[in-house]
Amino acid sequence: MKKIAIFPGTFDPFTIGHLSLVNRALKLMDEVIIAIGINPNKKTFFSLEDRVAMISHLFKEDKRVKIDSYDGVTVDYAKKVNAHFILRGIRSVNDFEYEKNIADVNRKISGIETFVLYTEPEHTHISSSIVRELLSYGKEVNEFVPEAMQIHNYHK
User: Fold this and answer.
1) What is the distance in angstroms between the CA of the first residue and the CA of the last residue of the chain?
2) Among 95, 98, 119, 153, which residue has the fewest nearby CB atoms (within 10 Å)?
3) Does domain 4-145 fall into CATH 3.10.580.10?
4) Residue 91: exposed, middle, or buried by beta-carbon count in 10 A (0-12, 13-18, 19+)?
5) Does residue 64 carry a catalytic annotation?
6) pLDDT band at residue 152, thresholds of 50, 70 and 90?
């Protein structure tokens, strides 16, 4: 059986922390699907199309990484794409509590396992929300996003 994991999130924008998690997960999985969740209640900085384009550009050479979007329940999407695993990253104790509860519910309702990778220490301070805030004030964010992503092409 092919080991497929989805990595769900808003990825607004995709950061070097996210990149690190995907690259490390590829050592464990045959394929990682970066699944951009559509949440109509969330105001995003970048459009869905721009997020898909930026992340697709980043992984254009790696056929083991797919980029997709979905709405609805994450485990339903995982089943739709034949993924048996959900990848999540944890930066702090606060993240752990939140992710553990969701993982327990997901496993209970679907049998899909969540595996957690701890963020590398040099990335624990980076979050999409901090990067968005910096962008909203016109600040440079190159040190927080993957170089190959070319975020400047999409800056509002």
Assistant:
1) 43
2) 153
3) no
4) middle
5) no
6) low
pLDDT score recorded for residue 153: 53
Is-catalytic flag, 91?
A: yes
Domain range annotation of the chain: 4-145
Which of 20, 51, 123, 128 is catalytic? The answer is: 128
Distance CA 127, CA 104 (A): 24
pLDDT digits (tens, 9 = 90+) for 95-120: 999 999 999 999 999 999 999 999 99
Estimate to the nearest angstrom the gap between the alpha carbon of 117 and the chain centroid.
12
Catalytic pick from 27, 42, 43, 156?
Answer: 42
Catalytic residue chosen out of the listed positions 24, 64, 79, 91: 91
User: Coil, helix or strand for 15?
Assistant: coil
From 21, 1, 20, select the one nearest 86 (Cα to Cα). 21
pLDDT tens, position by position, 25-62: 999 999 999 999 998 888 899 999 999 999 999 999 99
